[in-house]
Amino acid sequence: MLPKTAKTLWVLLLTVVLAACATKVERIDVEEVRDLSGNWNDTDSRLVSEEMIRDVLSRPWLNRYVRSHDGKPPVVIVGEVRNLSHEHINVNTFIADMERALINSGNVEVVASSSERGEVRGERKDQDLNAREDTRKAMGQEIGADFMLKGTINTIVDAEGKKQVKYYQVDLTLISLADNRKVWVGQKKIKKFVDKRSLRF
Amino acid sequence: MYRARGRLAGGLCLGAALLLSGCASYSQRFDAIEAQLAAGNPSAALQALEKDHGGSRRDEVLYQLNRALLLRMQGEYRQSNEALEQAKRLIDELDAVSVSEQTGSLTVNDTLKSYIGTDFERALLHVYAALNYLQLGQPDEARVEILQLDVLLKLQADGEGDGYTEDAFARYLSGLVFEQLGEWSDAMIAYRRAYQDYRKYRQYFGVEPPRSLGLALLRMAEHLGLKEELRQYRKAFAIEQWTPLPALREKGEVVLIIGTGLAPSKREESTAILAPEVGGMVRVSLPRYETRPQPVGKVRLLVGEAREAAELVEDIDAIAIKTLQAEMPAITARALARAVVKYRAAREAGKHDQGLGLLVNIAGFISEQADTRSWSTLPQRIYLARRFLPPGRHDISVRLLGRAGQVLAQKQFTGVAIEAGDKVYLSWRWIPPRLGGR
Fold first, then answer.
1. Domain for residue A134, yes or no?
2. Binary contact (A37, B140; C-beta < 8 A)
3. I need a surface site. Which of A31, B67, B318, B354 has the fewest CB within 10 A?
4. What is the spatial distance between Cα B298 and Cα B277, in angstroms, rounded to a whole number?
5. Which one of B94, B98, B144 makes the best mutation probe of the A interface by having the most chain A beta carbons within 10 Å?
6. If you average pLDDT over every residue of chain A, what do you get?
7. CATH number at residue A156
8. What angle do CA A54, A72, A120 make, to 5 degrees?
9. What is the count of residue pairs from A and B with beta carbons less than 8 Å apart?
């Protein structure tokens, strides 16, 4: 006969083991920060893009442009954001976040990037052949952008044993397409300390 | 009552032991896959691998690594990288010391530990991921792998100590990637590091610093104005003439990576000792590398009339053997500790019941198994050739020559498009039809 405490322990252990086996799903808010591996994640992408777009829209270049162009908002194209980091970062979500923040601000106009344009042009070509004349969109009527937003994501990783310090730096530049002037340079830094577990069952 | 329960425990032990020994050692199970590879049929090898993989988490990393290379052989670079990413994630997860697995390895055998790859295998994981990205035409993604590789190599041994502490080929490839992206100073640092590592390779693995690395070092040192270093490399490589970097930017470059053969496989070697006190035997099983014959003498790259020798950049045979040698004291210590544990268990059981003692002894004997797991789809050797070509389309062929100068195999790449200032990566994996060594 097993003593009572031992029995209780067994039941407890069994419960723990069984509980670990079941898949658990829990819905979390998109805004909620949950870091798992310490890698670049959705929260980083969102925080950086929102903050940087807020910054770019609050700087003097915008007012200066609007004043000198009879109140017309500048047209911006989002160019390449190069991933020079230690991780395979999906730059597309980052670019999409930025485009969204820019368009929704209403202060600037955004035109389709070079990768998206191809499809739009193909459609226009198709309309030329197949669409009714009064709905047909003519070619050669695209709006040329005034500024291009481009940048890089860089990291510095310092690791020792199971400990890692990850430092992300996102640099964005807004360049005037007319004369290569840099009208705004923005920077956002994120620093993370990752301590990996050294023991498992 | 006690006796009956003891017998039951003994029976369970025996059952477990039989179950364990029922599956042949990892490298033995791999023979079928190797046979398909020797027959030049990587897709059948992949099927055999998938059939063999029972979903065991302990071997999952190895499964993904092998899968990645078999997919790469079929030109499925994207899928190959997905497998490598999975392997990476698992290694990260399994890197923590497991209490249960450690206990298992000290009482039953070493195969109860999760396999997370040796130092050189983990470095080559990133090398192959980078190569896949380069062949997909995504140098920025290859750069990510190179940076991860740098963190890994820094953590590994910091380049100190004997044998394999740094991967010279990985560093050389890093230089190539940085050069392609126009990051000259990073390229210089990587090439310089590769040169230091190759000097170690010369000492430990008999691999000379490649001449193409010498040329790259000279070009970079000249371009960056490092006069003293330029003088040193000129002397070390005995190169008097080279084309300066700006002139080469008007040409394109083809980089050819050739993997030959298969990495050595681990075999088990057992010693049985009679232990009369328990009326049975105690067994100690240790792994040993078995290399395969190496038939390749020279590798040649042919473009039109021009010939270029591909150089040996990584000798995986030599590295694997050296690595196992370095691990051997720890493996042997664990095996001896296990023998003691198993012997004591049998003796204790024998005190109560002789039959039970014998059962425990047999169980211990059978369950003793050497860990013969290794990334066996890796090539035996890696060769590299670089050639600058004018922009346009070129027919490029590679010829493998045997030790006596006879042609072993030939491969043709037709209409390779070369652009100015860019690099094109080509790869070929050749596995001899007769692997031998059994």
1. no
2. no
3. A31
4. 59
5. B144
6. 85
7. 3.40.50
8. 80
9. 46
**Mean pLDDT confidence for B273-291:** 81
- CA nearest neighbour of B140 among A96, A152, A156, A157: A152
Contact (CB, 8 A) for A94 and A83: no
Q: Does any domain span residue A1?
A: no
Q: How confident is the model at residue B1 (pLDDT cuts 50, 70, 90)?
A: very low
Quick check: B336 and B284 in contact, CB under 8 A?
yes
Query: Which among A83, A86, A198 is the nearest to B151, CB-wise?
Result: A86
What is the Rg, in whole angstroms, of the alpha carbon atoms belonging to chain A?
26
Q: What is the percent of chain B with per-residue pLDDT over 70, rounded to a whole number?
A: 92
Phi and psi at B108, nearest 5°, equal -105, -75
Any domain includes A28:
no
Number of domains in chain A: 1
Does residue A9 surpass a pLDDT of 80? no
A1 — pLDDT class (breaks 50, 70, 90): very low
CATH topology of domain B2-209+250-430: 1.25.40
Question: For residues B101 and B415, what is the distance between their CA atoms, to the nearest angstrom?
Answer: 53
Quick check: B84 and B132 in contact, CB under 8 A?
yes
Q: Which residues of B touch A (CB under 8 A)?
A: 85, 92, 94-100, 140-141, 143-144, 147-148, 151, 154-155
Please list every residue in chain B whose beta carbon sits closer than 8 Å to the beta carbon of residue A157: 147, 151
The rounded distance, in Å, linking the Cα atoms of A51 and A148 is 18
Q: Which among A82, A86, A153 is the top mutation candidate for probing chain B, defined by the most B β-carbons within 10 Å of its own β-carbon?
A: A86
Statement: residue B403 has pLDDT above 50: yes
Domain carrying residue A166: 37-127+142-194
How much is the pLDDT for A43? 84
Task: Kindly state whether residue A31 falls inside one of the protein's structural domains.
Answer: no
Residues of A in contact with B151 (CB under 8 A): 86, 157, 159
